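Final report, Chapter 2: Outcomes

The project's central promise was a pipeline that accepts a single protein chain and returns its three-dimensional structure in a standardized token representation, suitable for archiving and comparison. That pipeline is now operational. To close this chapter, we reproduce one record exactly as it appears in the project archive, with the input sequence first and the structure output second.
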Amino acid sequence: MVEDLFIGIDGGGTKSKVRVEDSAGNLIGQGVGGPSNIRLSVTASWQSILKALEDALNISQISLQDKHKYRFHAGMGLAGCEVKDAYAEFLHHPHPFTSLQVTTDAHVACIGAHKSRDGAIIIVGTGVVGYQIEAGVGVKVGGWGFPHDDMGGGAWLGLEATRLTFQWLDHRSEKSPLVDDVFNFFNRDLQYFTTWANRANSSEFARLAPLVINHSQQDEQAAVRLMKKAAHAVDRVGVALLKTQQNTKVPLPCSLFGGVAPFIEPWLSADLHRHLVPREADANVGAILMIRQWVAKNGNV
């Protein structure tokens, strides 16, 4: 008897989270891997996903080579799916799955947060994106990529901290504990810092976000200003989502996702706070719900 296993993958700019369940919904294993933003690298994304999946399966001594025992059905929500060339390249990459459905990280987060019911989410991670599903229709706000969008996310915080640090180094602005710590991060080596800043992508800029967060928690003025600006950017995503809803007087419940979200939440507006609700499940659970529904409808294709 061949058993069906359902795999949910939540892939972002910083890490990939994998969950595996059997057909009855029992947890088989979980794993965490590197970033899987397909806009940046399809190959690296597949490597991160497969490594995290192998770790999850190893818990139950299952191998992806065990195709005589298992059918592997994978649902994935990945950052960067908006870039059509990257999306097509990702789908054409060889893979071990019987069934594969790929959508955005925001879509699966919304499915998981509200267990397939109508609702909204805002992800504040490496980037920022809002998404809602109402009457089967999905609406996306933001998440167009870094640095031209994604205001308020970890990469943006890192970029702004980098900007402030260069402005201090050439005497355009005053020294602060934040910029001093950013420079320390690069061993106070200006050439190293400059080279890094000109080559860094969103994941690398996001490595500086914890410095901003830590200093904001100590009420350091420069860091607090950045956190307030980030929160304002997230508020604007919430307002834009509300504008597209069928009943703007009764907003859809909205859940926050992403590693930066807990630190931004205290700075968000009262209007957004009023319809925030805890998520019912994580994005990788949403990805499993998506692939279960697809297999139920289409069979083992």
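Archive annotation: Residues 221-243 form the longest helix (23 residues).
This record, like all others produced under the grant, will remain available to the consortium after the project formally closes.
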